[in-house]
Amino acid sequence: MRNVETFAVGVVVGFLGGLFGKGGSAIATPLLSLIGIPGFVAVASPLPATLPGTLVASAEYRHANLLDWRIVLWSIGVGVPATVLGSLLTALTGARPLLFATGVLVLIFGLSFLLPSKDGAISKATGAEVLKQPHPYSRVGLILVATGAGLISGLLANSGGFLLAPSYVQFLRQPIKRAFACSLAVSAALSVPGTIVHAWLGHISWPVAGFVALGSVPASYFGARLAIRTRTSRLQRWYGIALTALGVLFLFHV
Known about the structure:
This protein is mainly alpha-helical. The protein has helices spanning 2-20, 25-34, 39-44, 46-63, 69-89, 95-114, 121-124, 139-156, 161-170, 176-200, 206-229, 232-251.
């Protein structure tokens, strides 16, 4: 029964990850915790599990010409060492604070997609998604976003997508589907150093990771296909509602 539940978590994580441009670790952690997967296993095992599904979903966004490779490459170059540092810092913390922090961050970013921004950045970013001219952004802002996402993704043992996608929209003023596309590509890269460090620390259960991966790969493909064909304003509301509800539910069970 536990394996079936873990597989079902993978299906949910993969579909939502493809739909909303994120690796899925931040969603997998609370769901695994809710079905009884303990401590660091729930935190770290989704990292290798969500990598194949993230790559599948990212390929769909790339085929739709939604990737900005400059954002992706800068984010990877800055985010990978930050992720390694954050992963090493987990040795100084306990599992419960990490799980609580994951729930809080999921809730905050869920609300950020439901509440209107003061300058309307998100609503303005929900128009045409494929633009011949890239949207301008601050290089310093990109470095700060990648550094912060890398540190927190390493610390919380996730691939950073739940931080990157809203940060690209709100701080870099990118169209939301482009933000999802870039987030998936960067998440795939950031999950690798985190996986290596957490495997070395003994935090990963490979059977749990395997069942999550089996469910997430096909579901990621369908989630990405649906996202590409759906109005982004609607995706934004779904994203906010799903993350907010999950954050509240998780915090009640930590």
